[in-house]
Amino acid sequence: MARQTPGPPVSPSPGEHPDAAGHDAASVAGTGQPPAAVEASPGATTQAPGATAVEAPPAVEAPPAGAAAEGPPPTRAPGKPRKLLYATLPGCWGALIFGCLSFTPSLLPRGGIVQGVVFGITAAIGYGLGVWAASIWRAFADRAPRQPRRWAWLTFFIAGAALYAVGFALGQYWQHEIRKLMGVTDYNIPLVVASPFIAAVIFCLLLLIGRGLRGLYRWAAKLLSRWIGPRAARGVGWVLVVGLTYLVVSGLLLQGFVNLMNSAYGTRDAGLASAKGAAAQAALAVKDLQRAGGFQRKYLDVVTTTGSGWVDPALVDSFEYLSGGDCATVAIQYSYLPSWISYLVDKAKAQEAGRALFDAVYGAWAKMPQDRRPKLVVAGESLGSFGGETAFTGANDMANTTDGILFAGPPNFNTLWTEFTGNRQAGSPEIQPIYQNGQIVRFANDAAKGIPPEGQPWNGTRVLYLQHPSDPIVWWSPHLIFGQPDWISEPPGSDVLKTMFWMPFITFWQVTADLPFATGVPDGHGHRYSAEYVDGWNAVLRPPGITTQDLASLRKIISEVR
């Protein structure tokens, strides 16, 4: 009996795989159905009446059982470009889970804008991890991508709405608890309502940037494959895109921003023009100190500034009150940039300035007769403590060359601070460590309530670090991305919620978002050190005749300085 000859096989659309799960291995033109296996010897032909004999196609195996039930892969129609903001189900689940976890508390209270930014960033990270996890699963399952069923998307939207509502409600409760701990009363309801929209904008923007970089990588790999193998082309293309991205961000964008800020702030302050280089500035500062009679005072304080030459008035005022005004303070400027920008790009300048100023002052001070020298002390806040530490090699060097040191809010990258806290005594917490039984160096969360170890002698030079448990400047570190720090695993400080816990990626972005608002909280929390300088200087200087009532009155005065 004559058979009808099948037409030519249909060519797959661009980007489609004819052997992907959910697609037939071969189909009859116009029907989409697989042809029956042809039982004929190779080269045999069949002929219908009046038809021209043609060669039958070779036998084709039917697709594996269950393959058609998997559904078609997420392919697009021929010639139709893929949308920029398409979404995959695994990515959406990752974004939802990470985004909801971003509502968990961090160190400082977050307003609507900050919460929206944190949610958008962590959701974008979660989306990428979700897509990556799905690709690994498909590699182990040895199958191609497939379109989710309608019920899968419906489940996601229902669960997503419920999870977001629960996360949002818990987030508002935790933020209320943090504000209550710190005495913060500001609460902007419109910004809280706007936070989901802010999160969506941030998420979509990061998604577009990521897909743009992926498109650039694919273009580079395709171009390189003309001259080298496909695997090498993909590897080289990836390296090129990563390198180009780094150069653009660190060179073009960051350096351009720094240059712009330098130009803007340089017009307001020309202090750096007084001398060329830190050493020359320090020498000029010593000459001015000698002219003003600073070396004839009872106390001489060498302060490393933050950024544009700023020194906290509360630090200086407390020092002057407790010394009875018989004191001098010397500092130099090393940048035009404000503190928060210098924190990112001027750390080396802070080190150079701190070392140069102390060496110049110490050189002139050491030449004076011992009975006529002022008591030499060192101080610095935040980046100033980082620069101030640079003049010393360790605790013994601090004790041998000064009569006292007071540092407040030390950044996590401080060299000596890291050494002291890392080698603290067993059982002492990272937020208030005990180093070498407190012989020289001690740490205080609130000096008015005590400086551990209590009851232990603290003779000779005293070095004191003031650090709040809720200060993100102190606790921020890139290591938060992949590692849990001790200050989170240990019992929290008095102004940190007990419900705070560490999560990879998420905690890092939460604490990063706290940094710009570190001083926007009441005194005694975050990066606000004002009244603490009273008890800090009192512990370091040990001035005679100061009563408890004097300290209480002075705290009230200093707390109103900022």
How far the N terminus sits from the C terminus, by CA atoms, comes to: 101 Å
Helix content: 40-55%
The largest sheet has its strands arranged as: 4-3-5-6-8-7
The low-confidence runs, each spanning 5 or more residues with pLDDT under 50, are 1-75
Overall pLDDT confidence: 84
Rg over alpha carbons: 34 Å
Order of helices and strands: EEHHHHHHEHEHHEHHEHEEHHHHH
List the helices and strands and how they pair.
Blueprint: E1 45-46, E2 54-55, H1 89-101, H2 112-141, H3 150-182, H4 189-224, H5 230-266, H6 278-291, E3 299-304, H7 313-322, E4 327-330, H8 339-345, H9 347-366, E5 375-381, H10 383-389, H11 395-401, E6 404-408, H12 415-422, E7 441-444, E8 463-466, H13 472-475, H14 486-489, H15 506-514, H16 532-541, H17 548-558
Question: Mind explaining what this structure looks like?
Answer:
The chain has helices spanning 89-101, 112-141, 150-182, 189-224, 230-266, 278-291, 313-322, 339-345, 347-366, 383-389, 395-401, 415-422, 472-475, 486-489, 506-514, 532-541, 548-558; strands spanning 45-46, 54-55, 299-304, 327-330, 375-381, 404-408, 441-444, 463-466. It is an alpha/beta fold. The strands form 2 sheets. It has a 6-stranded parallel beta sheet, sandwiched between helices. The N and C termini lie far apart (101 Å).
